[in-house]
Design a protein that fits this description.
The chain has about 110 residues and is mainly alpha-helical. It has helices spanning about 5-20, 30-35, 45-55, 75-85, 95-100, and strands spanning about 25, 65. It is globular.
Length: about 110
């Protein structure tokens, strides 16, 4: 059974992912930072674990690795989503992170 703290972290990750606008992306690390990695909540790997386990109901393709990719088995579906949303891509098929990045500062109650 998951602890209340763990459940709150899962809910916070999913709520933040739902805020990422269509055509934009954020990274696992940016999500972790926005939720307070310094508070012991977790880093990019923990965010990835949340997304792998519970992320199917949110726009998971908007959370990517810092190199502009998603796990290989998700690539074809993510690519279709990126095309349909107009997400900036590089010729390699990776997301153009500089053009598409969305900083999730609002997750901690900050304006941004």
């Amino acid at each position: 059974m998951a602890s209340t703290r763990s459940e709150q972290y899962v809910e916070a990750v999913l709520a933040l992912v739902e805020q990422v606008p269509p055509g934009r992306v954020t990274t696992y690390g940016a999500v972790a930072d926005a939720l307070g990695r310094d508070l012991g909540r977790g880093g990019p790997r923990q965010v990835g674990s949340v997304m792998a386990t519970w992320g199917g109901g949110v726009p998971w393709w908007r959370v990517i690795r810092s190199d502009g990719t998603v796990p290989a088995h998700l690539g074809p579906e993510a690519l279709q989503c990126w095309w349909s949303e107009g997400t900036p891509l590089r010729p390699s098929g990776r997301v153009d992170l500089a053009a598409a990045f969305w900083a999730p500062t609002a997750a901690r109650g900050e304006e941004g």
